[in-house]
Protein 1
Amino acid sequence: MDYFMRKEVLTHWKASDLWVIVFERVYNLSTIVEQYGPDSEAIKPLLKFAGEDVSHWFDKETEEFLNYTNVCSGKQVPFDLHGIPPHVLDADKLNGKPVWWKNKDLQVGMITKKQRTVRIINSLTDTMTTLECCTEDNLQKIKDRYSALGFDVSHSAYTWMSFLTGKELDLEKSLDENNIPDESAHFEELCLPDDLHTPSILLFYNNVITTPLPLRLDPDLDLSFDIQ
């Protein structure tokens, strides 16, 4: 399962790349937009809230689209303040498939429970980079986020280490699982800024020649010597 920060979801706001959030679940609705067409009335509310949280469209308990009672007819009708999105009025045409806000095939991940900040110290480039990540991210995901900033950190060239303990980190584990805890709650209890201390990861460059270089000598070189 992938986890995202809300500001990451906000970058997916185009008709060709449209994500929304429903009860902390992240959905990629690009195929729905393509199916209905970007100019469709059903797609307009999705385009208006592209990249945002649309949980307010649904009942918290049933997760069904909200209805209201029409005062003229006395019937329950869909709440259409922003328009009625796909699968609300035409769910009977899905041939047994779930509506998009319950379709696991369209879900790309979850919103992180907490956003964390970590400082990465690169021993080769002598640079420090502050990186935002999800608390659920493992070190491999953090490495990918760091690489996305333009840094070449192939695993064979670097060892990822705890700056505090000097121990090598497990790329399959999260920061917490690598004994790099989030201490912001403790700072808050003490009325200190939550960014008072940023945990650091040391990228140690493995500049070591593992295979000895062959010794090449001039065949005409005279290595004899006399003992006086």
Note: Residues 209-213 have pLDDT under 50 and may be disordered.
Protein 2
Amino acid sequence: MAFQFVTVLALVAAVSAGVLPVQQVYHAAAPAQLAVAHAPVAVAHAQPILAKADDEYDPHPQYKFGYDVQDAISGDTKSQVEERDGDVVHGEYSLIDADGFKRVVQYTSDPINGFNAVVNRIPLEHQLKTVVKTVAPVAVAPLPIAYHQHH
């Protein structure tokens, strides 16, 4: 096991020092030639990554979507709607924060103004659950009494 650990560390050190070439994955460069005088080195060559043609490019994308979650068991409540027309996006999402407020975020994004969001927090007093604290009775067992005789 120690031999494997040392071998892996030696390989990492060789790559870090530049003794072993490591090709970048994001371009297809010509294979590097490495001459080592003392020992032959095997060099693995990565296959070039081919990008998919942009034949499905939409110059003016449009969509609308939305969802709403109302889970009575977990109490999870959230929703979102969004609409896109070209480079302009409008949307809103909401969720219930742990402190009992509903967070509503309205956002827009466009090439001129960038991304902008307005966040509102609304108290949910009518939806707050009342927590009733009760004290459970504790069973008390009598402690054994130790009798000591003094001589």
Note: Helices lie at 2-17.
